[in-house]
């Protein structure tokens, strides 16, 4: 029907999305990208870690063991480096790819590395599990089209001056050319701010989740340019709904040939993993499933590390339980003022079956129901004391 003939019931035709292949689906179903044993874009939060550039065998192997020992899911490292100055270290080229692949094999992690030109794709794809398009190449359309013709996953980094729409159109090029395995990476944009190397745009995570079905990860290393800012921004990325983070790690950042200021030492990387271990589950995701226990710290040190993680998780759990008890008290007050009974056996049974249905990993539905029965009992006792009511 032509527009002239439209009566009031006629619905305006929806403008076609400028990026139909990557646009969020009507049913909001998200896509995930499989990389060997890991899948990016699921409930499992993914950590990709490694040096900015592969520098030599010792450096990449030491880093690989450290990140695998700390639980990373993939190893990164550049062999072809897009440097702002032609006089800066440009990467080891194919020798770097070989070392990266060898280190990844040794620790059992897939490897992610940057490709700069369409001509380099065959050699990079030969060694890498995931090909990275750097920020400076986000609109290198010849490269994007050529990456659409391979079947390996691609991490597409956002250009430092690219809008979200331009970012998504970059991804559309790759998917439209035939490769659906694209992971978007927010890595900071250039703003008037000079206190940090870039401004990490965490708005982008939430906006991208509204607009696309593709997985979204965040790079707080390039996003801030400073190692001390990586942990808080990695946590913020997880809280904003990112599917993972990519961070730079170097055994001796002060001697790194590129991006030393933003590179974490292995110890600082462990602290980032510990911090994430605490906030990722609160977002309904898990952080486990990566790493290689063989490279975890020496047993005594390792036991200490796991205990620290348990202590951090216990702290978070206690805070949540206190908040839950406070909320339950407010609910109790509300019911009292409405003249309703404080306790409702049916509702308690619902709570137990709801948490039981969330059972996953090592905790069975019965175990969860048992724990929550105790939580409910403790809450009830505190309500009785505070609100001076007796349970019926
Ligand atoms: C990198 O990941 O080392 C890199 C060069 O990143 P970007 O393209 O985001 O600057
Ligand atoms: Mn870098």
Structure description:
The protein is of the alpha/beta class and 392 residues long. The chain is 44% helix and 10% strand. The protein has 12 helices and 10 strands. The strands form 2 sheets. The chain has an 8-stranded parallel beta barrel with strand order 3-4-5-6-7-8-9-10, surrounded by 7 helices. It has a two-stranded antiparallel sheet with strand order 1-2. Manganese (II) ion binds at residues 52, 222, 248, 258-259.
Produce the secondary structure layout.
Layout: E1 33-35, E2 38-40, E3 46-50, H1 57-70, E4 74-76, H2 94-107, E5 111-114, H3 121-127, E6 130-133, H4 141-147, E7 154-157, H5 164-176, E8 182-186, H6 203-211, E9 216-218, H7 220-224, H8 230-240, E10 244-248, H9 266-282, H10 299-337, H11 345-357, H12 365-387
Parallel strand pairs: 3-4, 3-10, 4-5, 5-6, 6-7, 7-8, 8-9, 9-10
Antiparallel strand pairs: 1-2
Helix pairs in contact: 1-2, 1-9, 4-5, 8-9, 9-10, 10-12, 11-12
The structure holds phosphoenolpyruvate (PEP) and manganese (II) ion (MN).
Sequence of secondary-structure elements: EEEHEHEHEHEHEHEHHEHHHH
- Give me the number of helical elements: 12
Order of strands, widest sheet: 3-4-5-6-7-8-9-10
Q: Please state the CA-atom Rg, rounded to the nearest Å.
A: 25 Å
Helical content (DSSP H or I, runs of 4+): 40-55%
- Shape by Cα distribution: globular
Q: What is the gist of this entry?
A:
This protein is an alpha/beta fold and 392 residues long. It is 44% helix and 10% strand.
């Amino acid at each position: 029907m032509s527009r002239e003939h439209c009566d009031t019931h006629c619905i305006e035709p929806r403008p076609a999305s400028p990026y139909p292949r990557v646009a969020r689906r009507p049913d909001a179903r998200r896509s995930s990208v499989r990389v060997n044993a890991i899948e990016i874009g699921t409930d499992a939060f993914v950590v990709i870690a490694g040096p900015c550039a592969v520098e030599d065998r010792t450096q990449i192997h030491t880093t690989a063991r450290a990140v695998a020992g700390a639980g990373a899911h993939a190893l990164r490292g550049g062999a072809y480096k897009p440097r702002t100055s032609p006089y800066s270290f440009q990467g080891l080229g194919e020798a770097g790819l070989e070392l990266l692949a060898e280190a990844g094999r040794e620790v059992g992690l897939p490897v992610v590395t940057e490709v700069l030109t369409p001509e380099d794709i065959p050699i990079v794809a030969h060694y890498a599990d995931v090909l990275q398009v750097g920020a400076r190449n986000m609109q290198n359309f010849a490269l994007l089209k050529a990456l659409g013709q391979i079947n390996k996953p691609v991490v597409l980094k956002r250009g430092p001056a690219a809008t979200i729409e331009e970012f998504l159109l970059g991804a559309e090029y790759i998917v439209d050319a035939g490769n659906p395995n694209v992971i978007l990476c927010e890595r900071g944009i250039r703003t008037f701010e000079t206190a940090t190397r870039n401004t990490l745009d965490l708005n982008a995570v939430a906006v991208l989740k509204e607009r696309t079905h593709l997985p979204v990860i965040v790079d707080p290393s390039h996003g801030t340019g400073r190692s001390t800012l990586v942990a808080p921004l990695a946590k913020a990325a997880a809280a904003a709904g990112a599917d993972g983070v990519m961070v730079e790690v170097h055994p001796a950042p002060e001697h790194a040939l590129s991006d030393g200021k933003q590179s974490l030492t292995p110890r600082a990387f462990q602290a980032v993993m510990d911090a994430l271990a605490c906030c990722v589950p609160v977002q309904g995701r898990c952080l486990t499933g990566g790493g290689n226990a063989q490279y975890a710290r020496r047993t005594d040190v390792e036991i200490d590390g796991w205990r620290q993680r348990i202590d951090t998780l216990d702290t978070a759990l206690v805070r949540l339980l206190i908040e839950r008890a406070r909320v339950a008290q407010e609910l109790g007050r509300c019911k009292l003022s409405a003249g309703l009974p404080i306790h409702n056996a049916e509702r308690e049974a619902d709570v137990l079956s709801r948490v039981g249905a969330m059972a996953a990993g090592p905790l069975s539905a019965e175990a969860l129901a048992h724990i929550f029965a105790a939580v409910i009992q403790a809450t009830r006792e505190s309500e009785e004391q505070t609100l001076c009511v007796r349970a019926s």
